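so ive been stuck on this for like two days lol. basically i have the seq below and the ligand is zinc ion, smiles is in there too. i just want the complex predicted, nothing fancy, no docking runs or whatever. if the output looks off dont worry ill sanity check it later, just need somthing to start from for the group meeting slides
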Amino acid sequence: MSLNDLIGFFVPRRCANCGDSGLGAILCRRCHDKLPWLDPNQCSQPLPLGLGRTVAALALRDDARTWVHRFKYPGRGLVGLDPAAIGVARLLARAAGRRAPVRAADRIVPIPLHPRRFRQRGFNPAALLAREIARLHDSRVETNWLARVLDTPPQAGLDAPSRRRNVVGAFAVVARREPAASRVWLVDDVTTTGATLGSAAEALRRAGVREVMGICLARTPDAHPV
Ligand SMILES: [Zn+2]
């Protein structure tokens, strides 16, 4: 029993969203069910750019948008230490991870931040999600295989062709640490056109990975036009 479980045993945990009794869960049943979950039959879509499929748990709207934003951009000085947002992000990561047929031999790789952005932000949200998904599947997370070698401007606000151009050559597999796995799951918080995942997948495939799939918490409603 972890310390959190122990505390939850004596003090019923409150729902991170509404403050009602969550009966030990991070979100109460009502707030959990209110999230814009994607239909499991429609949570997986083919992607362009050499990526197999990607699964997502939620549509990026309503409360899902709020929680993802709060997780990615905690208040000044918090550097990733917003416990409610991290708790919800872990819950969402497990939900996304359960929709992905990860096998023990697969490796889980978070989309890396450029070192400059990492220093600025203090943590990589995708790495935290990747660790949660790896725990769920008893798989291994690799945070040092893939590096972001170009400090590209944010994708937000760009149209689909600009998003693709923006991330061309942005990733590289770090020499002498080449992936040995034949199947890799790339993890990111949000996907829109799949351009970032696709560019990272290309780098992994050039390094010999046979199959690259994606797991994201949420996708924008117009994601992945095929
Ligand atoms: Zn609630």
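The radius of gyration is 17 Å. Residues 184 and 216 are 14 Å apart (CA to CA).
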